[in-house]
Amino acid sequence: MSVAKNRQKGLSTLGWLVAILVGGFIIMLALKVVPIYLDDYAIKKVLTSLDTRPDISEASAPQVREWLDKGLQTNRIQLAGEELSVLRDKGQPVAIAINYERRVHLIHNADLLLTFEHNWNAKSQ
After folding, report:
1. Inter-residue contact 62 to 33 (CB < 8 Å)
2. Are 32 and 113 in contact (CB under 8 A)?
3. Phi and psi based region of residue 51 (left: phi greater than 0; alpha: psi -120 to 50; beta: remaining)
4. What number of other Cβ atoms are within 10 A of residue 79's Cβ?
5. Best mean pLDDT range from 19-28, 50-59, 71-80
6. How far is CA 69 from CA 15, 44, 62, 87, 89, in A?
């Protein structure tokens, strides 16, 4: 028993180097990806906040767009024009589609592409 205990030395130098590299990569990935997911969470909250508006079912598409833009500006989120569409057909409630991608540069020539899709429809009251 004591012979086996004396042979245990923990991680080797190579083991420590690999552990530090893997840990550093995970931290670097988290620092680059977490802010994008926080922005997406804010977009989701802005969309769900539209449900609490009492006049949402009668609102026009530009009015809903304005409410949405104010919510996004409050959270300092910028979406390109083609990433956000607000539609309202005659007799139909307002519908919002937010589809966007974010590219994160990882290392050398490797990028990470994150795609997000949100659809929201006004509930008839």
Report:
1. no
2. no
3. alpha
4. 15
5. 19-28
6. 50, 13, 10, 15, 21
- Distance (Å, rounded) from C-alpha 119 to C-alpha 94? 11
Angstrom distance (rounded) from CA 61 to CA 67:
10
Whether the predicted pLDDT of 4 surpasses 70: no
Taking the C-alpha atoms of residue 90 and residue 106, their distance in angstroms, rounded to an integer, is 46
Q: For residues 68, 74, 80 and 86, what is the CA-based torsion angle, rounded to 10 degrees?
A: 0
pLDDT in tens, 55-111: 887 888 888 899 999 999 999 998 988 999 888 877 778 899 999 999 999 989 999
| Closest by CA position to 99, among listed 81, 111, 75, 87 | 81
> Which residues are registered as beta bridge partners of 100?
116
Question: What is the distance between the alpha carbons of residues 24 and 44, in angstroms, rounded to a whole number?
Answer: 30
Give the residue ranges of DSSP H helices in 8-124.
13-49, 61-74
Predicted TM-score (pTM) of this structure? 0.79
CA–CA separation, 23 vs 35, rounded Å?
Answer: 19
Provide the 10 A C-beta neighbour count for residue 44.
14
